[in-house]
Design goal:
Length: 319
């Protein structure tokens, strides 16, 4: 029980400390890097496809949704006195310490008080408006932090920008990988997968011109004929090309892994895994041999095993 009490005590302590930041500044005396200007307005309109005539010509105004643009620091960030307050940095550090090391922007709200025009010089301040209680989300448990930025031209408030982030402790990663995606079996390629089930790699052959093809298609790429039969691949081939997947990580696969484009002896190419060799030793021209590997229940896939080469044999003999 003592354990539970301690945790509750800690939780309340953190919540109180976080709440103490409400109302403190997040950004002090910010200055826009550039005045509101026509080139940035034009780029924005081009990027968003906005052709509203109000945004061009001698009396152009800036699209209201550009509000945040005029306050952003860009890649180089804001320099000098402009920037995040020490209070905001402390708040983020406190959240980090409490285990909420991840961050995601959740939403923003803007209010517009008057249009901005080229030449307007922007200043801004931001305040930590609220820190939520601890919330449980799908990403993990954490706190929503809302800041409100007031944007001014001279003494006039021209707009406000409310920005909400979730600082959270990432939920524990699932130990078990989700199942591999299943091959899409359709009318055009059903015969291929039927062959795989029987432990045979079938290549489509045009019955008019004899051209082999893979992947399976309804018609012949060479002559357009729709008739076909199959030949069984001998199972030998070479790595024609390959990539090593590091990123993005697909949940069902453990990177890094090599994806090979294998040229079968019959001349067609297919994408598959090269197995039996570390991912970083797969090479173009490497001889490979077909095998059928059961990855999961009812998922058998054709893969290609690197064949032992003369070089490997002599290296092993030397060891
Ligand atoms: Zn043909």
């Amino acid at each position: 029980m003592a354990d539970g009490e301690e945790r509750d005590g800690d939780g309340q302590g953190i919540a109180r400390r976080l709440k103490a930041y409400e109302g403190l500044p997040a950004v002090v005396s910010g200055t826009g890097k550039d005045p509101v200007n026509a080139p940035m307005i034009r780029h924005w309109c081009e990027a968003t496809g906005d052709t509203n005539p109000a945004y061009t010509g001698p009396d152009a105004i800036a699209p209201p949704t550009m509000l945040q643009v005029w306050t952003m620091g860009g890649l180089s960030g804001h320099t000098g006195p402009t920037g995040r307050s020490s209070a905001y940095d402390e708040l983020l550090a406190l959240l980090d310490e409490s285990g909420c090391t991840s961050v995601v922007a959740t939403d923003c709200e803007q209010e517009y008080h008057r249009p901005l025009r080229p030449g307007d010089e922007i200043t801004f301040d931001a305040v930590i408006e609220s820190v939520s209680d601890r919330k449980t989300t799908r990403l993990g448990a954490g706190y929503f932090v809302t800041t409100r930025m007031d944007v001014r031209v001279g003494p006039d408030l021209v707009g406000t920008h409310r920005f909400r982030i979730l600082k959270y402790a990432p939920a524990a990663r699932r130990e078990k990988r989700p199942p591999r995606p299943r091959p899409v079996v359709n009318r055009d390629n059903a015969g291929f997968w039927e062959g795989v089930r029987e432990g045979r790699l079938l290549i489509q052959r045009c019955t008019a011109c004899g051209t082999l093809r893979h992947p399976w298609l309804p018609g012949c790429n060479t002559c357009g004929h729709l008739g076909w039969d199959t030949v069984e691949a001998s199972g030998t081939g070479t790595v024609h090309s390959y990539v090593v997947m590091h990123h993005p990580p697909f949940p069902a696969f453990a990177p890094p892994y090599a994806v090979g484009l294998v040229e079968l002896t019959e001349g067609v190419r297919m994408v598959s895994n090269v197995v039996g060799v570390p991912y970083d030793e797969v090479r173009i021209g490497m001889p490979v041999r077909l095998e059928f590997r059961e990855y999961e229940e009812e998922l058998v896939l054709p893969v290609f095993r690197a064949e032992e080469t003369a070089g490997q044999r002599s290296r092993e003999a030397a060891v």
